[in-house]
Amino acid sequence: MLRQDSHDAPLFGEDDDHSRLRKSKIRQPLASFFHLFFRTSAILVYLLCDIISSRFIACMVTIILLLSCDFWTVKNVSGRLLVGLRWWNQVDEDGKSHWVFESRKTHSPNRTSSAESRIFWLGLIVCPIFWIIFVFSTIFSFRIKWLAVVILGLVLQWANLYGYVRCKVGGRSNLTSMAKNYLGVQIFKQAMKKTEGP
Questions:
Q1: Fewest beta carbons within 10 Å, which of 6, 56, 91, 94?
Q2: At what angle do helices 29-52 and 147-169 cross, to 10 degrees?
Q3: Other C-beta atoms within 10 Å of 3: how many?
Q4: pTM (predicted TM-score)
Q5: Which residues pair with 102 in a beta bridge?
Q6: Low-confidence ranges of the chain (pLDDT < 70)
Q7: What is the rounded distance in angstroms from the CA atom of residue 117 to the CA atom of residue 11?
């Protein structure tokens, strides 16, 4: 089951006709704060855990709690409030699992601001990159005791990223065409800048 309308919040820097009409001020400051707070706190605790505490279990539990709070906050609160997207899994009476990806309608009066959209997508995309780096650095530095923690961080953050990208662009074919269109637009913008000159 897929319900969506892909014109309500800009994704990855795309511009739409309504982006000029939307105010760029942050209308949901608390949701914006917690969208970034838990995920950056988990990264900072991971990076500074040797300085903060020499106890591995205390650091591990703190990171897992922060990652769990981040997953819940992004999935259930900030995605809905900041960009009007939500996703979940439901199991029907036959025991079949159905993923549901929803997007706020374009004519909804509670449209998102471009600043909130940028905060949401930037936090959603950048933080999993850190966890990918942490996975490789953990493997190559032979810090195997941290491997489960960094893999959990990567999985939880990647799940939210995947869910929201699916909400925004729909099926896999839409995702491929969106990536091609985005690259085409970026190449066109660069070509136009070069022809305009200094």
A1: 94
A2: 160
A3: 11
A4: 0.70
A5: 86
A6: 1-24, 105-111, 171-186, 188, 190-198
A7: 8
In this prediction, residue 177 carries a pLDDT of: 57
* Residues constituting the chain: 198
Buried b / exposed e across 5-29, counting CB within 10 Å, b at 16+? ebebbbbeebebeeeeebeeeeebe
pLDDT in tens, 36-86: 999 999 999 999 988 887 888 999 999 999 999 999 999 888 888 888 888
* Residue 3, phi then psi, degrees to nearest 5: -120, 125
Q: How far apart are CA 95 and CA 84, in angstroms?
A: 29
Distance of alpha carbon 180 from alpha carbon 51, whole angstroms: 44
Secondary element (H or E) of residue 38: helix 29-52
CA dist 74 → 66, 69, 158 (Å): 12, 8, 12
